[in-house]
Specification:
Helices cover about 20% and strands about 35% of the residues. The chain has a single domain, classed as Lipoprotein localisation LolA/LolB/LppX (outer membrane lipoprotein receptor (LolB), chain A). The chain has about 280 residues and is of the alpha+beta class.
Length: about 280
Amino acid sequence: MRSTTRVWRRAARIAGAAVLLASVSLASAQQPAPGRKAPPVTESQVQARAILMRMADYLAGAKAFSFNMRAGYDAVQKSGQKIEFSEARKITLSRPDRLRIEGEDSDGDKSLTVFTGKEIVLVNTTDNAYAVAPQPAGLDNTIVHYVRDLGMRLPLAMLLVSQLPAELKARVRSIDYVEKTSLYGAPAHHLAARTDSVDFQIWVADGDKPLPQRVVITYKKDKAQPQFRALLSDWNLAPAVSDATYSVKPPEGAVKISFVHQLPGKPAARKPSAEKGTGK
């Protein structure tokens, strides 16, 4: 059953790697596509934009933070049936160049990814294997390199980059205010938006800490319209971190493997460039 689960899951992982980075740019009110006339902006849309920009500025300006994520995503089968898989992540970020992600998938696979400031280290504790690659300068460039060039998944990666305010302005075509709710902890604003490739919803906490509580993404260009859903909790804007937080030693006897771009016959990874933003 374990091998069958891996086959079911594979397509969603491969498809999701780049898309989750590109699509979770979060909002500007009614920005038209090139050549289109902008529709009138309503008060609701102005309110939604203000909330999202405040959240983006808040996250982008934070020097460090940590949070937990519990997520689920659809793996669409050839028959059209949707199979949901889940994952849990503990994310700890310190700018300018360090990140730690502790992960566990619903099939029991456990992993640890660390951006040490000099290297990218991925350890799969279930398979007792690890991979190492040089780390580009800066966290934003490293996140793009990790997803785009190394072909790795990093759900909701856009929330981790300092360019979030600029990135969201470039991508979202419309946004509106849905309601205010307290179902996910603190009172939050429920917003709904559209980009060229996805529809998404986001719940942003009310008050002086406008942190995202929940995200739902619908991949509308896929005929089956699969979704990604995540609950974000336990936010800490002053996590207790040290050099040990961002260091990692592979387990004894672990096998060293390669990232995809390091394999013979694969094209060389592109050099990340800050001028190109965080990828599309």
